[in-house]
Amino acid sequence: MPAAFLKHPFMSQQALGECDDDAMVQAMLAFELALAEVQEASGAVPNGVSKRMREQFKHASFNVAEIAEGIASGGNVAIPFVKQSRALLDNEIKRYWHQGATSQDVVDSALMLLLKPRLAALDDLLSRCRSAATALMDTYIDTPMVGRTLMQQALPITFGVKVAHWAVGLEQSRRRLSAVELPVQFGGAVGVHSGWDSLGLEWMDALATRLGLAVPVLPWHTDRYPIHALGTALDAVAGAAEKIALDVSLLTQTEVGEVAEPSAPGMGESSSMPHKRNPVRSALIRGAARQVHGHTSVLINAAAQPLERGLGEWHAEWAPLMESALLVEGALEQVAVLLEGLEVYPEKMQRNLAATGGGIMAEPVARLLAPTLGSDKAKAVSAQAAEISRRETRSYSDVLADMLSEHLGLESGVDAHALQNACDPALYLGSSTAQVLRAKNWLKNY
Fold first, then answer.
1. What distance in Å separates the CA atoms of residue 41 and residue 299, rounded to the nearest whole number?
2. Which positions carry the signal peptide feature in this UniProt record (predicted)?
3. d(Cα 329, Cα 254) in Å, to the nearest integer?
4. Percentage of residues in the chain with pLDDT exceeding 90?
């Protein structure tokens, strides 16, 4: 598979470099060395053995290709890894290697070790996005624009409140992700530390402390809540990022033109149309998010696993879990750049507010006319005026004034100044400004 062409561009390049095959080997090695140290501290391994092991692995070279080949016969990477690593030890200490552990202990714990720095990186990126969004909220808190429902113009909002919703979405997912625990895995063959009695739980707790992982209540070989919680939390971040990318891509359309992605040499160019400036960052974000959503479905469907060890369900988790983390990190790298350099065009927002000739203000006009005309007739008049304004490209307020004075004889029944104000989008922004201030206050409480 041409992964460098089809998969890696959506991922964080730094994360890819830090989560390669060698990194997995080192994570598994870290688990096994920590296990030997914990067991030595309890007297189950002779004094000095764990130190000898660590020294012998300092300059050891692992054959990653050989380990990969061994997965086909063993079903997971831990089996060939343990075999190869044990072979690198002196004969008199080989028997203390991987003592009391099973393959799933190694793989699950290694994945948690690989993911720990990734979650820290995601938290940093989400904090960076929050700062960029807050700056946009401050700048455009009172900037009116068209609010759209069902892809059509609806009523005015401010660009500041649109960004506020983006920011709250990202921050909600950040807080959810930060609450996810990455627990150590250690249960032995059937999850009850067979042959070691109460020492097993002591070792599990000590392992977690030594490796900097969370302490689980019990071994979780077929209790996949930790994976379910992490996978769905990553998906929530992907959804929040995708929402931003979708909105931005719609607002960058030539006919709308209210925002543009940050410019960069060659960014967004077309292979055949020199005039185009495609929203490529949004495409990368959305492409990554869609893949995460698919991976999440795999993780959710693997949540119930049989008896004391999964048969295929556990195996199906590995790639989707790791890829989700790398995809979300890649998406957030793009979101951070997007928000920090987003080009905003208030004058085009104003132009689009006037695209209907002011007909977008039919609702407040109907509210103004209702006491005089009655609710039903007020709605009919405001709607008819909007249609005439659109068809004849005349100002909505002018059409209304003509209709009220010439056809309805209400020139004295409706205050002209009030009518003018009812047609002004900047005076019909609801709680937009208050929502921005409320969101900013909430964002500070992190």
1. 37
2. none
3. 29
4. 78
For residue 272, pLDDT beyond 80: no
Does pLDDT of 408 surpass 80? no
Residue 113 token pair:
């070790």
- Residues 70 and 108 placed together within one structural domain of the fold: yes
Question: Do residues 321 and 418 both lie within one domain?
Answer: no
Other Cβ atoms within 10 Å of 148 Cβ, number = 16
The predicted structure's pLDDT at residue 267: 59
Query: What is the C-alpha separation between 38 and 384, in angstroms, rounded?
Result: 80
Amino acid at 336: A
Query: 287 with 269, same domain?
Result: yes
Q: Are 370 and 350 in contact (CB under 8 A)?
A: no
Residue 439 lies in a domain: no
Same domain? 311 vs 289: yes
φ, ψ for residue 284, nearest 5 deg: -65, -40
Tokens of 63: 């054959």
Residue type, 138: D
Within this chain, do residues 213 and 269 fall inside the same structural domain, yes or no? yes
Structure tokens at 256: 């709308």
Please check whether residues 346 and 363 belong to one and the same domain.
Answer: no
Q: Are residue 395 and residue 344 in the same domain, yes or no?
A: no
pLDDT tens digits, one per residue of 116-172: 999 999 999 999 999 999 999 999 999 999 999 999 999 999 999 999 999 999 999
DSSP of 204-244: HHHHHHHHT-BPPSS--SSB-HHHHHHHHHHHHHHHHHHHH
Q: Name the residue range of residue 290's domain.
A: 3-350
Q: What is the pLDDT of residue 275?
A: 56
